[in-house]
Amino acid sequence: MKILITGFDAFGGEKINPASLILEKLADEIDGNKIEKLIIPTAFLRAADLIERKIEQIRPDIVISLGQAGGRTDITVERVAINIADASIADNDGKKPIDEKIRWDGENAYFSTLPIKAIVEDLRAEEIPASVSNSAGTYVCNFVMYNDLYFASKYKNISAGFIHVPYLPAQVVDKNGLASMSLETMVKAVEIIIKTSANYKNKEDLKKAEGRIC
Predict the structure, then answer these.
(1) Catalytic residue among 78, 204, 210, 214
(2) Listing from the earlier edge strand, what are the strands of the sheet with 29-30?
C-alpha cells in the first residue's frame, strides 16, 4: 500500500513546525507500506496544488496530512473539514481569505475517511494522549484537509484525513502554561496512525472485493 504523508513548514512567527520534523524522522517503509512524504508550505493555494500534483503522480491509497495546533494537549484526529477559509492571520504567502469558499463544486463538508476512533484507541493503548477533534479550524489546516478529501473523492478509492499535533517543548519555553509533546512521541504516534489506517483500509478493500459493501 502507498501512503502519502504531508506536513507543513513553520508559520506564524515560529522557527519550526513539528509536522515537517515528523516527516523527516519517518521511515520510507512502515509495516510493508511505502511511505511518500511531502513537506508543504503553510499557504492556502500552493499547499493544495502541491498535494494534488503528488496524488496525480503517485496515486496513493491513503493520504494523511499533519499540522501544528499550538495549545492542544494531545494528538487530535480531525473528524470533519468545512468548505470555508477564514484566516485570522496571513499565510506564508501573505494571503488572508475571509469567509471564502474553498471549492465551489465541493460539498459543504467532508468527513475523514480514516478510522478516527480506532486511531485514538490505538494511540491511547500505547499511552499517547489522543482524542477526536470536531473542528480543524478555518485556517490552512482545514483548507488542506478539505482538499485532501475533495481529491480523494475525485480520484476514487483513496482514504484521507488530518491529524493535529501539539507544540514541541522548544516552542513553549516562553509560552507559560501551554502543552507540548516530544518529537519522539509524535513520530511514534504517526507510525501508529499509519499502521491503523492501513489495516483498516485493507479490511475495507477486502469487503468491497467480496461484495459485502458498496
Answers:
(1) 78
(2) 29-30, 33-40, 2-8, 62-68, 159-165, 75-78, 130-133
Confidence band (pLDDT; 50, 70, 90) for 176?
confident
**CB burial of residue 197 (10 Å; 0-12, 13-18, 19+):** buried
Q: Judge contact between 6 and 66, C-beta under 8 A.
A: yes
The pTM assigned to this predicted structure is 0.95
The residues spanned by each domain of the chain are 2-209
Catalytic residue among 56, 126, 141, 191: 141
Residue 214 designated active-site: no
CATH of region 2-209, choose from 3.40.630.20, 3.30.70.2740, 3.40.190.10, 3.30.470.20:
3.40.630.20
